[in-house]
Amino acid sequence: MTLTPAELTSAVSGGIGTSPQRPDGNLKVRGEFAYASDLWHEDMIWGATLRSPHPYARITSVDITEALKVPGVYAVLTADDVPGRNLYGLEHKDQPVLAVDVVRYQGEPIALVGADHPETALRAMKKIVVTYEVLEPVVDMETAVDDTPLHPGGNLVRHVPIRRGSQDVTAEVVVTGRYEVGMQDQAFLGPESGLAVPASDGSVDLYIATQWLHVDRDQIAAALGLPQEQVRLTLSGVGGAFGGREDLSMQVHACLLALHTGKPVKMVYNREESFYGHVHRHPAVLYYEHGADHTGKLVYVRTRMYLDGGAYASSTPAVVANAATLGVGPYEVDNVTVDAYGVYTNNPPCGAMRGFGAVQAGFAYESQMDKLAEALGMSPVDVRVRNAMTEGSVMPTGQVVDSAAPVAQLLKLVQDKPLPAGTSSDIRELPGGVSNTTHGEGVVRRVGYAVGIKNICFSEGYDDYSTARVRVSMVNGSLSAAVHTAACEVGQGLVTIMQQIVRTELGIERVTVLPMDTTIGNGGSTSASRQTYVTGGAVKAACALVRDKLAGRTDIGDEVIDETTEWRHRATEAIDPVTGQGNAHVQYGFAAHRAVVDVDVDLGLVRVVALDCAQDVGKALNPQAVVGQIQGGSAQGLGLAVMEEIQTSGGKVRNPSFTDYLIPTVLDMPPMSIDVLELADPHAPYGIRGVGEPPTISSTPAIVAAIRAATGLALTRVPVRPEHLTGT
Amino acid sequence: MDFLRPETLAEALEIKAERPDAVPIAGGTDVMVELNYDHRRPAALLDLTRIPELQQWEDGLRVGAGVPYVRIIDELGAQLPGLAMASRTVGSPQIRNRGTVGGNLGAASPAGDTHPVLLASDAVIEVASVRGTRMIPAAEFYLGVKRNALEPDELIVAVHLTPAKGPQQFSKVGTRNAMVIAVCSFAISLFPQENRVGAAVGSAAPTPRRAPEAEEFLASALDFKNPKPLLDSVKREFGELVSRAASPIDDVRGSAAYRKHALAVMARRTLGWAWQELLAKKNGSEERPCA
Ligand SMILES: Cc1cc2nc3c(=O)[nH]c(=O)nc-3n(C[C@H](O)[C@H](O)[C@H](O)COP(=O)(O)OP(=O)(O)OC[C@H]3O[C@@H](n4cnc5c(N)ncnc54)[C@H](O)[C@@H]3O)c2cc1C
Q: Are B47 and B2 in contact (CB under 8 A)?
């Protein structure tokens, strides 16, 4: 059986502030790490999912008779077979486990097949007969609220208004704009997969690649109609997440099939199904008006933004709140008007993705800052520095930023970096790369700047905590520690961080990371750049309890010291539903980029030559992991700037494959020069500041600013396509 | 599914005659994707990788259908610069290690990268069956979207090409700087001794196709005997004629208008590079006796 990644032990030394090797690093590099798609059980069967081909339709009948007759089929299940609540969701329980009467997006699950072979399951699936009455889909986020209601409460998921200062102040210089952000995908390389193993007492074990074991468990238990303790989850090897595994995919489906058939059930999506199987980044339309005085000081910012949540709410309410509360960017503005709307449509459901609402707003407000600079005849950096927030600045929500906010410093750091050498003669370093489209003809090089802001950890009064257990005993005559949490390692390196913290706190070099599962309390979500902060904080707190019991001993004989504790960051508040005022966030993170871009202005092809970054991380617990996060986040921002988009037409996905959903390769992403600041946040464990998301926000607008400078075009939509640059 | 592994070409042709439904598999970089996605479930796969005749190239040049891209780049770059350039743009190193020109021809995708080069350099495709051998000019090989001139019992054996007698160029547009399917592509071959030009477009019509008007215009506008720097007007007209030869569509990879525009730009630029090479050679060879 291959059910869980091995207990991860490594003999490397290294406490916080160093970069010890990841305990799973060698396995991953050698291709020996067991990902969820490698799960295997002796007598397991395979599950497959029948999905809707229509973005919006009434289901008039589902006939499973023929499918059941296929030899090797163990079960064919529909909504009638869901024993508990056939609705789930991270914030609103609005999404059916299996569709009832209506489908609201292309790819919505309708029926499940369990069979002795994946091929058999597919064959049987094709014999299920579903008849539809196809309906006109709602696809325009700006008019969705007034269109056909797709859910009982209408199509508005959440409206977040913010009113700060004067609402009718005027300014000497005014710039306006309308911006669009396309639908980005997390494009994690390990597709959705899991294995559900039924137990004889009617309970179930699920081995799964996810971002949050406990919230999965709660939703699964509710759908199965089981008490929570009868649903046990163990984290399997996760091949990337980026927010795309916060919502359920096949979790309930595999458990349903397992409980129905009494057999272990494995489900693995292929790449195409994966595009239908998880939520994406919200596409957005954003209207902005910036007013400034002649010195460049911002007088007001007004914005109205629409975020397309697609067919189900997922985390749309929180995404909208982020876009709204972070909607003016890392700038001081006294007069702010924000109206952010998250809506239902029949487009693919959208939810969490790295940057979570701050990315969409960031592209728009940074484009506006460039426009303002141009209107004022100022440099892009100067206009940003003129308005840069600092510690003590007040957010549009009225919240005072109470730790380092080195916005101006970050901008100056990237501005002062040396520029790369002139245009290369190696085609691999020119726009088009090996495709041999230019030897320098048409190539214009320009520079762009951007800076962004992101909230770290969960917000708006959410009780955000993590649970950690640290156990110490003697192994071969010396102290050895094991650390246990339910916090998901999705590739970011939490396993290493936890080892480092235990080593630092207890002085014990040998630290084992136990498999992450639900036998321990909630570890919270691996999202909002929060695990090092919150689970790191919990591990540190558990170590303190262990340390007290150790009392300086290096030999504890047969004694086992085993301490479990919960740790929470300081509380946040809900925001006022009318004015948007309130201390919504616990911490803010900042990053700035300078992009140097070669644009082939005749062919509309782009090569990012340099994408240098400066970011404050409070304290780099693992400097190499920090740099890795900044590189990865910047690359994802580059993808959104110039290539990554799920294209839809009438609610249907046109490019559900890696052939046509392009993500950057090593020839698209330049090596980066990165400055990491360590300005400790006194409220956070070790002073750390979440790292993973801020670089994703500023990377995109910096690149687009450079392309604008090279072409003189307005470029109000990302990703920028060759058509936009060539007017074709 | 049967997996048939002939050791010789003769054996393979017999099998193909008996089982025309057997799907040939060379590098498998197209076939395996289709199998994975359940787009195709053939009753049998006919593995061509053991057949020595397909893995070789001979002077002359007859390039076996099963020679992978990496060998074309490494071993034939000097003789077939255009094909090597196109090969260099195919996929990733892994794909270039496995993928073959025979497979590109078998798949006959309008976006296949070798097609414009084969068209522009007058390649002839050698196909065979138990009934005998046929020599099909590239221009007659592509019949429709993913359809070629092969009969069900035939296999592609080799591609015949003459070693380049003049400059060749290949250029392809994609929205990523590597490992990208062509939005559109273009190949040019100059035949100075024959006062002739080959030009062809890819991914801009239901099949890859030549641009005959552009070829004729250029052949008459260029003075191969006495090459002088190119006039911009010649490049522009050539680009226009190439663009006009295409009949592209709007799809998820790009708009028809962009494709037409990009073809004109690529045609101008590749002509410029090819002509520059010719001029440099001419000057080089004239200078040599004096040195
Ligand atoms: C990740 C990836 C990237 C790719 N990138 C590119 C790219 O940039 N450009 C590009 O052009 N292509 C690309 N391809 C497609 C593919 O690699 C090429 O078409 C390649 O040339 C196929 O060669 P093969 O030997 O692998 O063919 P196979 O997959 O073995 O066969 C392809 C087809 O040809 C038939 N066939 C093969 N050999 C013969 C023969 N001797 N006689 C008769 N029929 C035969 C097969 O039956 C099948 O229909 C890519 C594919 C992948 C998976």
A: no
Phi-psi region for residue A723, left (φ > 0), alpha (ψ -120 to 50) or beta?
alpha
Whole-prediction pTM: 0.97
Which residues in chain B touch residue A654, judged by CB atoms under 8 angstroms apart? 252
Query: What separation in Å is there between the alpha carbon of A116 and the centre of ligand 1?
Result: 32
Report angle CA B110, B113, B115 to the nearest 5 degrees. 65
Instruction: Return the residue whose CA atom lies nearest to atom 3 of ligand 1.
Output: B91
Secondary structure (3-state) at A349: coil
Percent of chain A with pLDDT over 90: 97
Reply yes or no on whether the pLDDT at A589 is more than 50.
Answer: yes
**CATH placement of domain A45-135+202-238+245-273:** 3.90.1170.50
CATH of A280-459+576-726, one of 3.30.365.10, 3.30.479.30, 3.90.380.10, 2.30.30.280: 3.30.365.10
- Pick from A687, A665, A668, A670: which is nearest to A678 by CA? A687
ipTM over 0.90: yes
Whether B170 and chain A come into contact, CB under 8 Å, resolves to yes
Residue corresponding to tokens 């600013």: A705
CA of B27 to the centre of ligand 1 (A): 7
- Phi, psi at A547, each rounded to 5°: -60, -40
- Summarize the confidence of residues B252-272 as an average pLDDT: 98
pLDDT score recorded for residue A275 = 98
| Overall fold of domain A8-34+465-568 | Aldehyde Oxidoreductase; domain 4 (3.30.365)
Asked whether the beta carbons of residue B175 and residue A643 sit closer than 8 angstroms, the reply is yes
- Residue A635 CB neighbour total at 10 angstroms: 22
Within 13 Å of residue B126, how many CA atoms lie on the same side as its CB? 15
CA B207 to chain centre: 12
Report residue A524 CA to chain centroid gap. Answer: 14
Q: What is the mean pLDDT of residues A427-442?
A: 95
Which residues does chain B have within 8 Å of residue A604's beta carbon, measured at their own beta carbons? 258, 262
Closest residue by CA, ligand 1 atom 19: B104
| CB-ligand 1 contact for B87 (6 Å cutoff) | no
Question: Integer distance in angstroms from the first to the last C-alpha of chain A?
Answer: 56
> Residue A6 has what pLDDT?
53
Backbone angles phi, psi at A479, to 5 degrees: -65, 140
First to last CA, chain B: 67
pLDDT band at B37 (very low <50, low <70, confident <90, very high): confident
Nearest to B171 among A435, A665, A721 (CB): A435
Nearest by CB to B258, which of A432, A660, A722?
A722
Which of B85, B175, B257 has the CB atom closest to A728's CB atom?
B257
